[in-house]
Design brief:
The protein is an alpha+beta fold. The chain is built from 6 helices and 18 strands. It starts with 20 loop residues before the first strand and ends with a strand.
Amino acid sequence: MDLKSINWKNLDFGYRKAPFRFHARWKEGQWESGRLVEDDYIRIEESATALHYGQQCFEGMKAQRSSSGKVYLFRPEENGKRMQDSARRLMMPEVPLDLFLKGINEVVRANIEYVPPYGFGASLYLRPMLIGTGHNLGVKPAPEYLFAVFVSPVGPYFKEGFKPIRVKAESYFDRAAPHGIGHVKAGGNYSAGMLPVTKARQEGYAEVVYLDAKEHRYFEELGAANIFFILNDNTFVTPKSDAILPSVTRRSIMEIAEKDFGIKVEERPFGINEISRVKEVGACGTAAVITPIGEMLINDETFRFYDQGKTPGPITEKLYKHLTSLQVGDIEDNHHWLTEVK
Ligand code: PLP
Ligand code: COI
């Protein structure tokens, strides 16, 4: 990828090959120290569990540039810990936190020119992954593993940027079952979501909101982000469920809402029957950042939120501005969430 050919202003959320990636292999109970490699192909056994049985997980993170040119990561240790949770659930060896952070830092440092300049709303997306390798045929954990991190400069996940999107509450397909793997970042959760989201996009919706698989009565999350609601009395509510991904972004905006803005925050089961009490809705995640949801289809009925879904709601906007300013170092990091890559 030729850096000069990148139009930082109009970047989509897509793969662009950067020069370096980080690889560390696990064999015979040991992690190697890992190294930077240039090859963007991974050579693994045809019988690897990652390819057949979905024994793999991943993470999503961003490196962003400040106005003075510094490069910051946002709460990287939280992604490291979540990858360990995913590894345990999928019977893979945990990547030690120091190896995870070393891989992240080395890969960003090696590709530092690919961290977009300040002020374009673009960032360097990091994709850490852990995959089962080694020859294997039966359904059992792999004998070997690869921890890898590649990066790609990206723009907004929803092409509209900070504009309200239309979403559809999924009344047929489920993302994750109770006691399944919805709470970990396993690839299978995303392959299961490709059919529903493709159908939704064909119908003009940007994303799907999944409901609880048992009763289809409670909101869970979107295919690629968590969800939050601002009620008419200004309360911030976000679903409590064991089947959703514990989002680092969501945890952060709950803290911002409560501590920085004095907003009442609730994490609780949130039923579709409560939608009439809602005045703003938002999606949140690393890729989605905070994306306002202007319109939602629920069982053939369309609900529109702030300004008939035409503009972002004021609380959503306030949270978005605070989070994004904090992430690029424009305002003081009083939560101690930033790590500079030097
Ligand atoms: N939920 C799902 C299904 C996701 O894919 C993501 C993205 O990572 C999130 C939620 C948001 O998590 P985070 O804020 O940690 O990126
Ligand atoms: C992220 O926000 O980092 C994600 O992993 C969402 C996605 C699958 C693009």
